[in-house]
Design a protein that fits this description.
Helix content is 43%, strand content 14%. It has 10 helices and 10 strands. An 8-stranded parallel barrel has the order 1-4-5-6-7-8-9-10, surrounded by 6 helices. A two-stranded antiparallel sheet has the order 2-3. The longest helix is centred in the N-terminal third of the chain and has 25 residues. The chain is globular and about 55 Å long.
Length: 309
């Protein structure tokens, strides 16, 4: 086991969407051409049952976070969706939220790259807002007090200022979405400084993705990015930790977390003397296996570490 320099940290660790060990996923879906009430409910039931299994497993292994897959209810935000999913599934979703609280599991959602409220295309904006509403409604039904809905600022479309203006104008009246929203920096277009500017106007939180920041830092050191982003949170701040896969495109996630990348985060937290609770979402292709190695490293150094219950 690696001996890593750790001061008194108070960390929660999580991973996204599926558990390879359990062969469990919250992202079962189907083809749009096969969309039917019966098939959707079948997928939703399986996704929800696996979510419960994952939550119990996470509690046993020492995890504190889990990101629910966007396909929990397949195509829920699509115009062809055949029934009132809110009325039909509210109670079931709420029961899982009660379970998550009992197991001390914080939940999040992270719509994909096609969700872009700053797009100049009105149809893209409309679809994006519907998907964000669906995500926020899931978190509301879960009664996820610490729930987080994460998105990027999206494309630039040749003019950053106009893109920012559209992004803000299209979201500023969406109270339910803003309640859960957190904005994340990306590896190419939007650095932490730019994301902070938009977040301040909308009154939402900022998540620092450490890999993205290393590739697109702007004028901020990681320590500075952490301090500025953490100040946007009234509850437990959250960061994303991943490592570059050298065999994949710029910003592609590797199977595991490189120790040097985790050490860089720890060093930055020590430098800013951060000892409050902090959540770290491990974004690696091996999901819980990569995240479990981080937990083991923390436990190995537990003489200097305060693990959060």
């Amino acid at each position: 086991m690696v001996k890593i320099k750790i001061k008194k940290l108070n960390l929660g660790i999580g991973y996204p969407c599926e558990n390879i060990t359990l062969k469990a996923t919250t992202n079962r879906t189907l083809k749009l051409s096969n969309l039917s009430e019966e098939k959707i409910k079948e997928k939703f039931k399986a996704n929800l049952e696996d979510l419960k299994r994952i939550l119990f497993w996470n509690k046993e292994k020492g995890f504190r976070l889990f990101r629910i897959g966007q396909g929990l209810i397949p195509f829920a935000s699509h115009e062809l969706f055949p029934y009132d999913w809110e009325k039909e599934h509210k109670e079931e979703i709420n029961n899982v939220g009660i379970l998550a609280k009992k197991l001390n599991q914080r939940l999040s959602m992270h719509p994909g790259q096609y969700v872009n409220p700053g797009s100049p295309n009105p149809k893209v904006v409309e679809r994006s807002l519907k998907e964000l509403y669906y995500s926020a409604k899931i978190l509301e039904f879960l009664e996820a007090k610490d729930g987080v809905l994460i998105i990027h600022l999206g494309g630039v479309y040749g003019n950053k200022e106009k893109s920012i203006k559209r992004f803000i104008n299209n979201l500023k009246k969406e109270k339910l979405i803003l309640k859960f929203l957190a904005l994340e920096n990306d590896e190419k277009f939007w650095n932490v400084t730019e994301v902070l500017r938009v977040a301040e106007i909308l009154g939402v939180r900022v998540i620092v993705d450490t890999l993205h920041h290393s590739l697109n830092p702007g004028n901020l050191k990681l320590e500075e990015a952490f301090e500025l982003a953490f100040a946007t949170w009234s509850n437990i701040p959250k960061i994303h930790l991943s490592s570059q896969d050298n065999n994949k495109k710029f910003g592609g996630h590797s199977q595991k977390i490189k120790i040097k990348d985790f050490q860089r985060v720890v060093n930055a937290l020590i430098d800013i003397q951060w000892e409050k609770p902090l959540d770290i979402m491990i974004e690696a292709k091996s999901k819980e296996k990569a995240a479990l190695k981080i937990i083991k490293i923390l436990n190995f150094n537990s003489n200097n570490l305060k693990l959060r219950s």
